[in-house]
Amino acid sequence: MNKMDYIIGIDGGGTKTVGMLTTAIGKELVRTQAGPSNYHVVGTEQTKKVLNEIIRKLTENVDNTTLDSIRFCLGMAGLGREEDRNIIGQMCDEIGIGKKRILTHDAHIALVGGIGKQTGVIVISGTGSIVYGIDQYGQDARAGGWGYLLGDEGSGYDIGIKGLQAVARSADKREPPTELTRFMLNRLELNNPSDLIRWTHAANRDEIAELSKVVFDAVETGDKKAETILDQSLIKIT
User: Fold this and answer.
1) Which are the contacts of 88, defined by CB distance < 8 A and separation ≥ 6?
2) What are the distances in angstroms from CA 147 to CA 16, 46, 50, 216?
3) Which DSSP symbol is given to 67?
4) Which of 138, 188, 212, 217 is deepest in the core (most CB within 10 A)?
C-alpha cells in the first residue's frame, strides 16, 4: 500500500477484539480479530499483547508509514472511567500508538457506529449488558456495565445462569418440569441435572453466557419457564 492517510478502529471486548484498517474516507482495507482485551478481566499484559497482535496484522502490508501517522479509535470494554483511559493511554504510548487517537468505551462506538450520529440511545445485551445514551447537548448517561458479579441484568450471562438455576429448581421439584432440563443436558452432553454442579464450577463467564441460546431454543417449544426468563430479562434491561 502506498503512503496515505489511514484510520484504525479497534472494538475490544471481554470475548474478542476486532480491528479494522480503513482509508481516511472509510474504505475498509483490512479486518482482523484476536482474543479478549478487557484489561479488568484479562490483565494489562494480555491486553497489550492483543492490541499489538491486532495492529501488527492490520499494518503488516502498509508501506512508508508509521503508527504515529495513523489515526486510531479504540472503543474497549472497561474504559468508562478516566482512570481506565489513562491506563490504556499509557499502554498505547508503550506500543507506539501516536497521539492521534480516541479512547472510549465499547458502548460509545456501538452507538455512533450503529446509528451514524452522535445522539441516541443504545441497549446492548451480549455477554454483559449496558444501556448508553447521548443527548443533543453532548451529555451522556449510562446504566449497567457493572460486570456479571454486580449486574449485567438481561445479558447473555444472566439469561444463561437463570436457565441453569431453573433446571436445578425443577430437579428439586421446587418448580414444575421444564424443557430447559432436556435442552441443557443435551447441549452440555450431560446425563443428569446433578452433573451441572461440576460443569458450572468449571465453566467461565462466556461459556455460561452461551447457554442463553438454549433458553431461546426452549422458548421455541413454548416452554413457560424459558419464556418467563426472557420476559424478566427484557424488563430488567429496559
Assistant:
1) 39, 47, 74, 76, 79, 103
2) 16, 19, 21, 22
3) G
4) 212
Architecture of the CATH domain 6-104: 2-Layer Sandwich (3.30)
Distance of CA 207 to the CA centre of its chain: 13
- Residues 6 or more apart whose Cβ sits within 8 Å of residue 101: 71, 72, 73, 74, 92
Pairing of strands 17-23, 28-34: antiparallel
pTM, two decimals, is 0.76
Identical topology for domains 6-104 and 117-238: yes
Mean pLDDT computed over 143-170: 91
Q: How far apart are CA 54 and CA 32, in angstroms?
A: 7
| Residue 101 CB neighbour total at 10 angstroms | 18
pLDDT above 60: residue 2: no
Contact 38, 22 (CB under 8 A): no
Query: Any idea where the domains of the chain sit in the sequence?
Result: 6-104, 117-238
Q: What is the CATH number assigned to the segment(s) 117-238?
A: 3.30.420.40
Kindly state the percentage of the chain with pLDDT values over 70: 96
Residue 227 sits at φ, ψ, to 5 deg, of -65, -40
